């Protein structure tokens, strides 16, 4: 894929914080490849691939079931996949011209590569014909769905910033206070280690979980402009002094045993990292807001009032705005350009009637504890057990000076894979910050 130049997309344009109606973000997920609904074979309305792991998988499946019940002659076949397995399978399917009718995605660089391959339909005319579908969604959600000024995906699902979670009971038992700065984080590490408690849980084998740490450290130390230079293709952008400092800080945390022992063998797909936090074996965890639902479902940390959460704290001397946050600006449903006209018609009807319908909004709020990207959805929070959490997510997204898309989704697939590979090496202390920068500078613009 050619470099996504500023004329095609702007990373900061994807991430600028907007008033409440413009708050954006996204989620990652996982579970087993091949969980299906909709009967055997492809439905008359085509097929739909999406991510698994409950409660998100159930919510997606329920929306599809509602559509298939209402439109039995246009039924769409749904199949769920683990996060990492899905990324590989969809890449192969698109390359072979065998993509599902409805393609679940993260927008950004991945979507731009599908557009370059001619794999997805231009949905701009559909939105022009259905202006209400655009007006009801957070405006900023469309940035990562847009390539060369055209909309190639339907923004869907929820706002999910990356959050620093902490176990209140663990902190209370240790007689410690949650961090308010990066320096506090480093100071807490030996105190928790002395008590045989891992300071941070981390599913390092998944790699993108490690990336979240760098996103915030780059931002807090040098501001979002540091990654903007990478995105713009500026030569040697990864060697910026602020970038080198951020890379060094994360290795400082690794060397101090800031993460659970054996973190590089833990995967996010199994929710093992969440279990370490909820069971009290780890004090803190940096992860997406989408994990709230599974932590609530699989443990009592939410019902007991012991789950704390905050935006990532500032770094002393850093120039980044402490309100900035990271994640993805929504989840995205694209339409395969290879689908038949009958299948395209069914998919568009699914988009119009079920994606972010009132029923689906209620499911996202009540079942997953997540905030849908719908203008005025905050009216659904009142009286809910999770109202405080939902308001936190809403406020984090809406008050952020900059809300940035996750790096591996903003970059082209080629550069993103190189990024994740080098992040794994960085966290294993196999390469220095300078070696990391050298490797990444070599794929800028690719």
TrEMBL record:
Residues 1-26 form the signal peptide. Keywords: Signal. The keyword Transmembrane helix does not apply. Pfam families: SBP_bac_1. Gene3D superfamilies: Periplasmic binding protein-like II. PANTHER family: ARABINOSE-BINDING PROTEIN-RELATED, BLR3389 PROTEIN. This is Extracellular solute-binding protein. It comes from Kineosporia babensis.
